[in-house]
Amino acid sequence: MAEVVLKKVEKQYPNGFKAVHGIDLKIEDGEFMVFVGPSGCAKSTTLRMVAGLEEITGGEIFIGNKLVNDLPPKDRGIAMVFQNYALYPHMTVYDNMAFGLKMAKVPKDEIDKRVKSAAEKLEITDLLSRKPKEMSGGQRQRVAVGRAIVRKPEVFLFDEPLSNLDAKLRVSMRVRITQLHKQLKAEGQNATMIYVTHDQVEAMTMGDRICVLNYGKIMQVDTPLNLYNKPANKFVAGFIGSPAMNISKATLVEIESELFVQLQTGDKLALPKSKVEKVKHLAGKEIWFGIRPENVGNKNTARDGDVSVTGRVNIVEQMGNEEFIYFFIGETQYTARIAAEKSTRANFNQKEEFYFEMDKCHIFDIETEKNCML
């Protein structure tokens, strides 16, 4: 068993600053859990507390049913991969990967077997005689991952391991790490992984589940698709997704038994009957109105029941297969995501009709910021 359990875990520094506020989280045996959030949200601090590199000031951490609060990192059954690779520059790849095993007095033939097996998994067998300075960033990061694999830890910890790589390398490495997780599980090895990133695309593509953090608190823990389609609150809705969800202040108004989202310009967007029951208690109140860019279209994408509003085009970003149109309704900017073949070739400052798929919208409480549509 290699599950990781955090119970009421806190971190408070001597100056009184509280970085982590009583986190409760269970990471299942063999699960790929991603910690994601903006800079300063305490995701790396939380990971370092699991690793034993950061002292906790409250709560309990269990790894494989064993309380590890007072155990040093070497006795926790973890292996960590850092952002800066942390390889020994004077050692070959083979020696870098074998070093921890030598210190643990593992027999020489077993070391050789583990190093070569890990190198094969990561396709770095031909690099075993090289030194770090003779390799690219992506190759060095694979060596760092290989050094973790050979230890056969109960839990792998990754602290923003791809942030030093260029965009193309990041994509290939995230695929490699995801494949590795599946391969280790298929071989019956411990494959519990906790991965820290600020990049929500990495989080969405890699994690079995994602833990969204902000200011040292858990905002939501769920599968990537549930986070995207059913965000628990305004923060998660705005953080997960690229381009970000359109979120603006509005008022929920009732007219002749129908509910409308009234924008600050006075434009009214009718709510479909399927959504009315969940939010009618907010009639007459200010709300946060949210809708994803792919649910905002033009006359070429409009469906029956979509509600149109006139907007003024600001910027159009051509992405090849699609375009992002940034437009204003009054003083508030929105984003539409439209397939290239449906483009109307909108230009700067041009007035255009934009259509909102109101059956896909979200309504957030103005005070609690909770999603009222769940």
Write out key terms for the chains shown.
374 residues; alpha+beta; Rossmann fold; OB fold (Dihydrolipoamide Acetyltransferase, E2P); 2 domains; six-stranded mixed beta sheet; five-stranded antiparallel beta sheet; 25% helix
How would you describe this structure to a colleague?
With 374 residues, the protein is an alpha+beta fold. It has two domains: 4-239, Rossmann fold (3-Layer(aba) Sandwich); 246-365, OB fold (Dihydrolipoamide Acetyltransferase, E2P), CATH 2.40.50.140. 25% of the residues lie in helices and 33% in strands. It contains nine helices and 20 strands. It has helices spanning 43-51, 93-103, 108-121, 137-150, 167-186, 200-206, 224-229, 234-239, 273-279, and strands spanning 4-12, 18-27, 32-36, 58-63, 66-67, 78-81, 155-159, 192-197, 209-214, 217-222, 246-255, 258-262, 268-270, 286-291, 296-297, 307-318, 322-329, 332-339, 351-356, 362-365. Strands 6-7-8-3-9-10 form a six-stranded mixed β-sheet, sandwiched between helices. Strands 13-12-11-14-20 form a five-stranded antiparallel β-sheet. Helix 2 (93-103) crosses helix 3 (108-121), helix 3 crosses helix 4 (137-150) and helix 4 (137-150) packs parallel to helix 5. It is elongated. 37% of the residues are buried.
